[in-house]
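[audit] Reproducing an earlier prediction to check determinism. Same input, same settings, fresh worker. If the tokens differ from the archived copy the diff job will pick it up downstream; this log only records the rerun itself.
[audit] input (232 residues):
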Amino acid sequence: WIFNYRSLSDPQLVSGALIDVAKHLGNLSFRVWEKMKDKVHFSPVILDPNTASGWLYLSDDLTSVRCGDTENINYTNVFGSEGFSSGRHSWEVEVGDHPRWNIGLVKESVDRKGETCALPSFGIWCLVHSDGKYTDGEDNIVTVKQNLQRIRVQLDYDRGEVSFYNPEDMSHIYTHRDTFTEKLFPYFCVGRAGEANPSSIALCKTDINFYGSLSESVLPFLKECQSLMAIT
């Protein structure tokens, strides 16, 4: 009698009328995604060979670039193939021990194969590395805890922010703040590597990591998922 009473008051436990876990978890997955989608925006990037300077060598899969060894060539540019005019997007670049590079974003109207000046006033927002020093493109020193092997670039178009992080611990490096009025493209400028190995910089195939508020917002749903699996 007690068993029947509990079954009626809690129909999820009645034999033959168990909760549809697959359906519930499907809804749960959707709710988790709703929590995640405004916080994680990993954007795969490939290089656009049509924008590459003549001194650059791009890999066959268009994910890495190096500069030729020709004398009197300082920096050469290439853009990403896809631009952004809203939302938040991020990608990572492996720079290793390469001594000279600029990484960031460039506005669409900048001359794609001409000589560029990596300054916000010229429509380029980047982090610059040259011979062991990091700057914001305007000769202001950017302090880092250690030499960076990989950079995460993060664009928040609507808030007017281009930020850089060390993906090893997601420590913040620098943020440009501006008002964007046209489409922005990933921007890469690489100098001669000298003795550095590898001699190229490369876009990374990256697993999305969750930090801070994201973990806090998703955790209750993951606990709910765990309890549902225990029921079955």
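[audit] rerun output stored. Observation attached for the diff report: The two ends are 24 Å apart (CA to CA).
[audit] end
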